[in-house]
Amino acid sequence: MGTEITLSLNDIDIDWGKNRYWKNHHWLFPPGSLRDVEYRYAGGVTKTKPAFETTLDEAYFRLCHLGYSSHEAKTKFESAVERWNRTAELRLSFDEFRDALTSIDFAALTSADLEPYIWDFRAFVVNLLGAWGTDGSFLEDFIAGLDFALTLRVLADRPESRSLPLRWHYQDLVESGWASLEDLTDIDRQAFIINHTALFGRLQDHAGAATVRAFDRWLTDRGLTQVTNYGRTTSNGGVAHETTTLPTSVRNMIHHPENPHNVLSDDDLRQSVECLLEIARLLPSPLPGLT
User: Fold this and answer.
1) CA trace torsion 63, 32, 185, 246 (10° rounding)
2) What is the separation of C-alpha 254 from the centre of its chain, rounded to a whole number of angstroms?
3) Which of 3, 231, 240, 247 is deepest in the core (most CB within 10 A)?
4) How many CA atoms lie within 13 A of 123 on its CB side?
5) φ and ψ at 55, to 5 degrees?
6) What is the pLDDT of residue 178?
7) pLDDT attached to residue 1
8) What are the Cα distances from residue 66, in Å, to 60, 75, 100, 215?
């Protein structure tokens, strides 16, 4: 028994956690994604409660720009298989994994289709990959421990599924006292720093800006304002204050952790990533390699 928190695609639960054991999927959802949605319970009971909701297409955009582009996803999957095969013999390629998952038609899939697997989507995936479930592969354990963002990223490679709703049903966990909304919306600081650094650099390359200062001007030309104070250490040990856009200030704080004059908060880091994502969204064509 326990209280579940689930991630669903078109009302099919594809990931779940319980009590204090769950994965944070909040980063997949853009600001303003909180909605009242229908929760379903045993016996046909339904209740309307808050959840995070977006489309798979929006999550696909965020995945592509936050470490799970096609190339990055393939590299991460192959690294996971390589580590797994230190003590196993799994002969599953990324292309085979993707082909199996993109064969799933979520527009037609129903809860009854998952009933033979006790409504466990991972067991459903293991069945799809049955040909690779040979002795010594430990396929079921591999799928159970695989970074779920890789699974979701591959599911998004089926274009017909991208318009479908993606929902994170969290409210039961909050009501039961296992987690607060703040717990659920916390960021993975290390991952956000890595993703901010990569996205800032890619946008700077796209802008053709030779310096950070020139790129900051490019950002202001696209609607960001220079209202964030950054304290720069001078050659004589003093501090010089300058005002930049938030992403540039955050970039400087990440690149200069030795500078004692600034504190990078989680809120500023989160907001800066969202600023960069919005700039990327408005580009006339996608950034190279981020599909």
Assistant:
1) 80
2) 21
3) 247
4) 10
5) -105, 160
6) 97
7) 66
8) 10, 14, 24, 20
What Cα–Cα distance (Å) separates residue 80 from each residue in 87, 111, 185? Answer: 12, 30, 27
Quote the distance between the C-alpha of residue 78 and its chain's center. Answer: 19
- Domain definitions of the chain by residue range: 4-185, 189-281
Region class of 257: left (phi > 0), else alpha (psi between -120 and 50), else beta: alpha
Amino acid sitting at position 13: D
Residue located via tokens 């017909």 = 160
- Report how far residue 135's alpha carbon sits from residue 215's, in angstroms, rounded to the nearest whole number: 54
Q: What is the pLDDT of residue 2?
A: 86
How many CB atoms sit inside 10 A of residue 104's CB? 20
Q: Residue 173 corresponds to which tokens in the numbers above?
A: 């966990």
Rounded Cα–Cα distance for residues 61 and 166 (Å) = 13
pLDDT value for 237: 84
Instruction: Give me 263's structure tokens.
Output: 């504190």
Backbone angles phi, psi at 272, to 5 degrees: -65, -40
- The neighbouring-strand residues paired with 242 are 230
Predicted structure pTM score = 0.96
**Which residue's structure tokens are 């799928």?**
143
